[in-house]
Amino acid sequence: MIMRIFQVTTQEGKEREFEEFFYETAIPLMKSTDGIVQVLPGAPRTNSPREFSFVMIWKDLKTLKAFVGDDYQSPHVDPAEAELVESRTIKHYQLVE
After folding, report:
1. 55-77: per-residue pLDDT in tens?
2. 4 near 35, Cβ under 8 Å?
3. How far apart are CA 65 and CA 70, in angstroms?
4. Do 42 and 53 form a contact (C-beta atoms < 8 A)?
5. CA separation for the pair 56, 4 (Å, rounded)
6. pLDDT tier for residue 89 given thresholds of 50, 70 and 90
7. Which residues contact 85 (CB under 8 A, 6 or more apart)?
8. Quick check: 85 and 18 in contact, CB under 8 A?
9. How far is CA 89 from each of CA 9, 16, 69, 92, rounded to the nearest angstrom?
10. Which helix (H) or strand (E) holds 10?
11. Could you give the CA distance from residue 19 to residue 85 in angstroms, rounded to a whole number?
12. Helices and strands of the chain, counted as H and E runs
């Protein structure tokens, strides 16, 4: 299984708008995506008020690529969130069970 960690830093002042997108669009989308075994969304804490994240466990690389395409190592962004995001990172790991 593949562990995919996606982290976002919002534009300053766009935290509330991104939070709405995160809870109403991104989390439901990821939880309903074929090939995802588990989704662990992370919301900001006091010391990092603009940072959101997802840890996603994918069944395998084939299902991940079916969702994001062959360029799975680039952080893909929904057009609805693009103007809200300052930066994003993506990392992949082999899940250790």
Report:
1. 999 999 999 999 988 998 988 77
2. no
3. 5
4. yes
5. 5
6. very high
7. 8, 9, 10, 11, 14, 18, 77
8. yes
9. 9, 20, 17, 10
10. strand 2-10
11. 11
12. 3, 4
The amino acid occupying position 33 is T
pLDDT digits (tens, 9 = 90+) for 1-20: 999 999 999 999 999 999 99
CATH number attached to the domain at 2-94: 3.30.70.100
Q: Which two tokens stand for residue 56?
A: 């996603």
Whole-number Å distance between alpha carbons of 44 and 21: 14
Residue 54's CB: how many other CB atoms inside 10 A? 19
Residue 21 backbone phi and psi in degrees, to 5 = -60, -45
**Cβ contacts of residue 47 below 8 Å, gap of 6+?**
none
Confidence of residue 42 (pLDDT cuts 50, 70, 90): very high
| Per-residue model confidence (pLDDT) at position 66 | 93
Question: Helix (H, G, I), strand (E, B), or coil: what is residue 69?
Answer: coil
